[in-house]
Amino acid sequence: MACGIGPQSGRVKWRFGFTQNLLRYFLLCHLVFFVTGHIRYSIPEEMRKGSLIGNVAQDLGLDLKRLRSGRARIVSAESVQYVELKADKGILTVKERIDREQLCGGTTPCSFSFEMILENPMELHQITVEITDINDHSPTFETEKNNFDISESATAGARFSLTSAEDPDVGVNGLREYFLSENDNFILKQHSNAEGKKYAEMVLEKPLDRETKPNLFLKLIAVDGGTPQRSGTVNINVVVLDVNDNAPVFNQTVYKASVSENAPKNTYVTTVNASDADFGSNSIVTFHFSDGNSALNSLFRMDQISGMIYINGEIDYEKDKKFELRINAKDQGGLTDSSKVVIEVIDLNDNPPVISVMSFTDAVSEDSPPGTTVGIINVKDLDSADNGQVSCKIEGTVPFKIKSNLKNYYNLITDSVLDRESVSEYNITVVATDAGIPPLSAKSTFNLKLSDVNDNAPTFSQNVYSAFIKENNSPGLSVLTLIAKDPDANQNARVSYILEDINVGGSPISEYVSINAASGVIQAVRSFDYEQIKELLFVVKTQDGGSPPLSSNVTVKILIQDQNDNPPQVLYPVQTGGSVVAEMVPRSADVGYLVTKVVAVDVDSGQNAWLSYKLQKATDRALFEVGSQNGEIRTIRQVTDKDAVKQRLTVIVEDNGQPSRSATVIVNVAVADSFPEVLSEFTDFPHDKEYNDNLTFYLVLALAVVSFLFITCLVVIISVKIYRWRQSRILYHSNLPVIPYYPPRYSDTLGTGTLPHVYNYEVCRTTDSRKSDNKFGGAGGQNVLIMDPSSTGTMQLIQSEKNILDEPDSPLEVSSCDYYQRAFLYCIDESILHVYMSNIDMAFAVFSTTVGTAPVLSDFF
Ligand SMILES: *[C@@H]1O[C@H](CO)[C@@H](O)[C@H](O)[C@H]1NC(C)=O
Ligand SMILES: *[C@@H]1O[C@H](CO)[C@@H](O)[C@H](O)[C@H]1NC(C)=O
């Protein structure tokens, strides 16, 4: 017990129980008050400065003057003067804020004491001021927040101790209880420890789910019992720790995407996405193709992490129009989900049309009418829609068109009339184009040949062909080549040449010329004689090999050219073998006396027949001359007695051909006044000549005899036969035809000249020779030996010769001719019997004699 004055005592501490202390308080204070004037006051803490604590003067029973005179003052051991004495009023006021908790902490009751000293006399009064608690503190937590990491797998009943709160107030003002903010998972349990300190813990009542509430923000509230009540709060943050309790989930059950075909590798297709409600590594999802169609899966590639799908192979719409990929999502804990990706392939125009031939004619006939089908083609395009929509046309200008009656099938048909001769083949190019963008096209070329139809006749380049050929040509000589052209082909263009049958001079043309049917070469069949025929005019037909054949014709003219193949023929004076003819010149003849006229003809024509006469030899050159143009022999001087009676002149007659041909004639002239004189002279003409003549005579005679014997034999045989035939009288009515005959050795005579004695009577007469005409006429009266082995035609020529040469009233005339046994032809005119032997060489063929001097015909046969 230390209740008393103690200068050293700053603070009185009560270490007794509550009731005990209270009791002591009353006892002590009344003691002090009474003994030493001890007074007590009780005030709440935290009063304002200047607040009245108590009236000390009154309580001590002192008047204010005493206080003033006693210089009352407060003495305190405390460092802080909480109270102040207002001596003038005798009251105590609060000088400094009084915090009970600061002054006493948890001690109750809480008071402080001080002394008031008075002087004159000295008095000492103890004053104690008790401070009562007011609820001026809230419960406070040691930490500002309380964090927990709790796995969502934590089970119900798990406990978590919470931070506890402090409240410096005492008594009812101290901490009373805790509250936990509203939540679904935790409840609060409160406890007190041995010292009476209250603390709390959370108990998990319902398991946590991070996926629904990853964080819980709770508040722990501590309240005291004061009035008004104070509280303190602390945040309790609960982080829910993840557990892999969720499988990944795709955000779509089916993913749809489209991709163009032929898209390059690594083209992005689509992205799949799956979410995992878990956190952290538990939420890491990887993507995979489901096992299964590995071929399909190899076409695509999926990024396992991002879920992006790319193209990994070749996408061909024509193979697959749609892909369905099954995919899985997997988290780290092996939980999975599955979905599928449907990828549609977009068609691209990547396939050109394909043209294929269904049928195609190799060749179409040129006369096919427009609209003839020459081929059928099929056109396909693997693409779809517009990309596979194909249209066809023909490129360039050809007379064909294309027509479709059936989808994808096209007919190639002719569009106009065709002509193989102008265009023999066509290349038909068909272009097929699809409707894609850009369009693709294909080309195909078909070669179509036109087959020939015989629609063109062969034609010659000229309307008339003409050619020249020299007479005396060798048979077989090519004269001319005809060429006909036929624009058709093959057999239709194979031209052949045919001679149109006509008669030339009574014989068919084929006896004159022939044509090579294939080559068109015209050849002479025989040797031509200009003197006989001067030109040939005939028609050649050309014909092709078509069916029916077409033909045309052309006129061919062959002109035969003259050659100098005939020597001049001396008509007068007649050259006889035996007899000697002499012209008489009277010795009295004057200069320029016309002795005679050499008459010659040349059957050739033109220059070849232009004759000139020359004196070649003469007994007396000075006596005679020959007119070079007219052949007149005249005296050029007076005939004298000295001139020989016998004069012999050799005159040469030349034509003007190249080379020229000539003939000589011997003219005997008798210079005499009387005939006997002449005779005497001419009997001794040179014997060499006579000898020659004799020799010729004997030869002819020998031949005649041989021939006579031969003919006699023939005649005997034939007579017998004739006799028999006469019996049947058939012979009389058989008019045997005259068969043209060529001597067997006809060809041997070629080159040597024409047949002899076939005259072209162009007699060259001088205008001034009337006299010579008379002479000539006289010569015509003589017997003429005529040799002609060939034909009756010759007879007429002979006759005409006579007619020209003789006087108009000449009795010479062919009366009748006939064949005898087809071997002999005999003709009798008034004075001469002519016998022609048609099948014996001409040298032996002819007998003729003057009727009357030779045996009569009956004798002859
Ligand atoms: C057709 O084509 C072929 C081959 O290309 C060629 O030889 C021929 O000359 C062509 N014909 C035509 C008429 O163009
Ligand atoms: C030649 O052609 C014409 C018409 O082209 C025809 O009348 C005639 O018969 C043909 N022959 C001859 C020999 O003219």
Q: How many helices?
A: 11
Low-confidence stretches: 1-35, 730-815, 838-861
Structural class: mainly beta
Shape: rod-shaped
The distinct ligands, each listed once, are: 2-acetamido-2-deoxy-beta-D-glucopyranose
Q: Work out the oligomeric state of the chains in this entry.
A: single chain
Spatial arrangement of strands, main beta sheet:
1-7-6-3
Q: Provide the residue-averaged pLDDT.
A: 79
Our estimate of the beta-strand percent is 35-45%
How can the largest sheet be summarized?
4 strands, mixed
CA distance, first residue to last residue: 232 Å
Percent helix, as a range, is 10-25%
As for the number of domains, it is: 7
How many DSSP E strands? Answer: 57
* Rg of Cα set: 87 Å
Which short descriptors sum up this protein?
861 residues, Immunoglobulin-like, 7 domains, four-stranded mixed β-sheet, 57 strands, rod-shaped, binds 2-acetamido-2-deoxy-beta-D-glucopyranose
